[in-house]
Every structure is written in structure tokens, then in C-alpha cells.
């Protein structure tokens, strides 16, 4: 079919976990029948300006995150993606102070804020007609911080589950544009954090993909992208009756 040779232009947006997918995905794009358009911003979630509570300590987000909407806009204009793969997880499963107001993860106020930000991201990256593959957040398991002796908030599976409820609801609000890619289920088929996929470790620190994990997920992402993208129609002469 005409679709067989079609290589969709692909953009990746998200945090550092998304980056560890894209650093494998795009060098291998040709073998995965994709056109690569690498773009992620390490250390930024959905929030443009915030102080985030990490391991119980408030810390300002990277200054680069402040114009995240513009960066999504610019990347979409540059790459004109057929599909944008989006992964937001560790930076959004936490309490944040935004413009002087606290948004506690799991509260109605924070749910409304994150839902609005998901809608905004989907609107920006689909503005040129592309689809959005919104990945569910994986479970993570980091060691306690040497600095604080505290656990990472985003390692709480209840927080991950709640984030994924917000992600699924966002997809449901954008029918025909956004679809779910259940990355969480791929990495945790039994519903709990697993260190391995097919018997091999998929991450190097409890959260970010190592080379093996990146390859497994890249192949899977490419399959999802090919399922949702609509190849351009090749016009032929109408059949004679």
C-alpha cells in the first residue's frame, strides 16, 4: 500500500525521562521508519514558572522552563510533526508554588491546573494538524537522596496513578487528536514497579531509560506512532465502473 513507505515526522516533548527515549529514538529513526525531530527540555514538566518540592525541599525550576509554551510552539513550527510523543511525569507529580500560590498534587486546584496545562500542550503541538501520542507516566524507584535522606515524591505509585488519570482524561477531551500510549503498562504489566523488562534492567537510576530500555521503548513508540498517523492520500485516477 501507499502507506508502507510513509515515514511520519515525529516530535518528542516532555521531561528528562522523555529525553532518554528520544536520544535512542532519533538516531535509530530510519530503521524505525520515522523521520526524527528531536526536541525535549530536560528538567521541565508542564509548568512554566514554579518552585517545586523535591525530596521535601522547595527548589526553583530551571529558568529555561519559563518559556516552555514558546519552545513547544517553535518546535512544532520547525518540525511540523505528523505525531508528537508527549511524556510528562516526575516534574508534575509534586507540589508546586506557582506565582506565589501553592498547588498541592492531588488536590482539585492542582488537578485543574495540570489539566489546563495538558490541554494547552496538546493544542500547541497539534496546531498544524498532527496527532498526539500521550504516554502514561511510568512508576519510578530512586534511592533516597544523599542530601536529605528523603524519598522522591514522584516514586509514590499513588501519585503516578493519579497523574495517569489526568493524562487519560486529557486524551478523552481531545478525541481524534490525542491517543494514549500506555507506557506504564509496558514497563509494569503487573501494576507495580519492575526493575526489568524481558529480564534486563530498563533504567540506570530508577527513572531514566538506559540504552536497553530506550531501545525497547523506542521500538514500541514507533509502533504506536505508525498506528495513529494517517498517511497522506495518494491520488489516482478513479476506477472505471
How many strand elements?
A: 11
For the termini, the CA-CA separation is: 22 Å
* Order of helical and strand elements: EHEEEHEEEHEHEHEEH
| Spatial strand sequence of the major β-sheet | 2-1-5-8-9
Please estimate the helix content. Answer: 25-40%
Could you list some keywords that capture this structure?
241 residues, alpha/beta, 5-stranded parallel sheet, 6 helices
Description of the structure:
The protein is α/β, with parallel strands linked by helices. It has six helices and eleven strands. The chain has helices at 16-25, 68-79, 108-125, 157-172, 183-187, 211-228, and strands at residues 9-14, 35-37, 51-54, 57-60, 83-87, 96-98, 101-103, 131-135, 178-181, 196-197, 200-201. The mean pLDDT is 90.
How would you sum up this structure in a few lines?
The protein has helices at residues 16-25, 68-79, 108-125, 157-172, 183-187, 211-228, and strands spanning 9-14, 35-37, 51-54, 57-60, 83-87, 96-98, 101-103, 131-135, 178-181, 196-197, 200-201. With 241 residues, the protein is an alpha/beta fold. The protein has a five-stranded parallel β-sheet, with helices on both faces. It has a four-stranded antiparallel β-sheet with strand order 4-3-6-7, with helices on one face. A two-stranded antiparallel sheet has the order 10-11.
Topology:
Layout: E1 9-14, H1 16-25, E2 35-37, E3 51-54, E4 57-60, H2 68-79, E5 83-87, E6 96-98, E7 101-103, H3 108-125, E8 131-135, H4 157-172, E9 178-181, H5 183-187, E10 196-197, E11 200-201, H6 211-228
Parallel strand pairs: 1-2, 1-5, 5-8, 8-9
Antiparallel strand pairs: 3-4, 3-6, 6-7, 10-11
Helix pairs in contact: 1-6, 2-3, 3-4
